[in-house]
Amino acid sequence: MPPTPIPITVTPELATAAGAPPAASLATEHLDPEVRVPVDARGIALTVLAVIAVVFALHLAQAFFVSLLIGILFAYMLNPLVVYLERVRIPRAAGAMLVLAGVVGALAIGAYSLRGQAQAIIEQLPEAARTFSTALARLRTNPAGNMQKVQTAAAEVEKAAAQAAGGSAVSRAPATHVVVDPPGFKLNNFLLAGSMGVAGFAGQTIMVLFLTYFLLLGGDMFKRKLVRLTGPTLSNKKITVQILDDINDSIQKYLFMLLATNVLVAMLAWIAFRWIGLENAGAWAVASGLLHVIPYLGPGVTAAAVAMAAFMQFESFSMALLVGGTSLTIATVVGTFVTTWMTGRIAKMNEAAIFISLLFWGWLWGIWGMLLSIPLVVIAKVVSAHVEQLHPVAELLGGEGK
Fold this sequence. Notes:
By secondary structure, this protein is mainly α. The chain has helices at 12-17, 23-29, 41-60, 62-87, 92-113, 115-123, 125-141, 146-164, 187-218, 221-229, 234-276, 281-291, 297-314, 317-347, 351-365, 367-386, 391-397. It has a domain at 59-139 and 207-219. The longest helix is centred in the middle third of the chain and has 43 residues, at 234-276. It starts with 11 loop residues before the first helix and ends in a 5-residue tail after the last helix.
């Protein structure tokens, strides 16, 4: 028969005398202590200062970095053609020269073919300004116009307020108005500034062409050098090769998407402008396709320009709104559906990251920054996806489940 257990009551005093910790201490041992996250204030301050220094350097050397990045993008875009010529036994130097000459020649032929329409648009600018000012004056003087009604109502309100306060109003001295006469417009200064801007743009274009040629001439030389600089380990070399291949693939797909969407915008705009009856429809369609490269800003500028041209031609605000709205609708539909869908498949990024990149680079470099923002954020996404320390950046830039 097993022995019967004898119940023993253990008091806190007995437990303390036996060397056991008190009950209160036993309870507090299971509580989580206060979590304190160490903060490296010096490291954070150095990081902030380094970011500010980099942003300041990018802004200060804008002309250099913009030319460099545009040359690199052109080299990525034209490299497949040079590789194809190299496969058919044409030396790389001659192939790069032929490709660049072909691109410049095609642009020159296109500009020359549209010179008549472009000249007609330029010659109509003074007449457009006069027509617009005349229409505004007619709208102001029209008794049945909305602007005249608003002015009449405001005058009646002021008259009623003056009559209500007429008995107790204190006579005041008439106010003295100081008119500052701005300096007159000087055509010589305007032409000088315009010629200097054209000369600077031409010089930057020549620099970009030379840079593109030398990058095409080098071929895979820089790729091999970067792989060699990563170190002797095979894993680092494989990661570097994969990063460069992914960047090359993403940039070429993005540039192809940009070309396809701009051509689509130009074709749809030409069809719509011809159907409406807008003069110089070909030149305005080409301008729509070219300005569509600039996100958000380009379509707005195009819509305002074609609306002004339509108002000058038809002398009707409704026709101006129709043509401008058509241009803006085409750019919006293509940009919302085609461009967004293709960019999502190519870059696999969320729309918020793309828009924030547009804001930042547009603030830093203006129009050129908006042009280069998406390729830069694509490169950042590819690099951060392959570097373990930068995986949080890739997670922030990536879309849902990507």
